[in-house]
Amino acid sequence: MTENHAEHTHGAGEHGGPAASWMTAATMLQDASPITVPDGASAMTIHVQWEPGDPGTPPHRHSGPAFGYVIQGAVRFELEGEPERVVEAGGTFWEPGGDVIHYQDGNALDDARTEFVVTMMCAPGKPMLELVAESELAERAHLRAPRPSGSGA
């Protein structure tokens, strides 16, 4: 964590001293920038639980940025233009929202449950999540990163 981020996380001031454990209690898990939050956005935090092998939400997008933390298991995560990756328990993920398609957020494990928490910024009057039609997926196929061999997708 850089010095500026430490100040942002804990604030600046003279309330330190040897007993100031509050200054070391937090650990930076994710630092995403730049982000764009829609004017008048609201924030929503949800807890998601996928059973073993669950493919998760079909391709979708969010109207604003989303920030997630994997509690247990492993999430198969893929955003438009980025290669698929697996985020394991204790790991974080984020997406910018807007026009970017979120292809995968399912359970990467066939033998265990996966759980994560995600906080999303939602534009006023927009749904928290919008599924992407098959026709749009076909039109934007050239923007998807190459599929891993043997993925079947």
Description:
- By secondary structure, the protein is mainly β.
- It contains 2 helices and 9 strands; from the N terminus they run αβββββββββα.
- It has helices at residues 3-10, 134-139; strands spanning 42-50, 60-61, 66-72, 74-79, 85-88, 92-95, 102-107, 114-122, 130-131.
- The strands form 3 sheets. A 4-stranded antiparallel beta sheet has the order 1-8-3-6, with no helix packed on it.
- Strand 4 and strand 5 form a beta hairpin.
- It is globular, with a radius of gyration of 18 Å.
Brief summary:
The protein has helices at 3-10, 134-139, and strands spanning 42-50, 60-61, 66-72, 74-79, 85-88, 92-95, 102-107, 114-122, 130-131. The chain is mostly beta strands and 153 residues long.
Biggest sheet, in brief? 4 strands, antiparallel
Number of helices: 2
Radius of gyration: 18 Å
Q: What is the straight-line distance between the termini? A: 37 Å
The average pLDDT score comes to: 86
Question: Share of helix among residues?
Answer: under 10%
Order of helices and strands: HEEEEEEEEEH
> Could you give the count of β-strands?
9
Poorly predicted ranges: 1-7
Identify the quaternary structure here: single chain
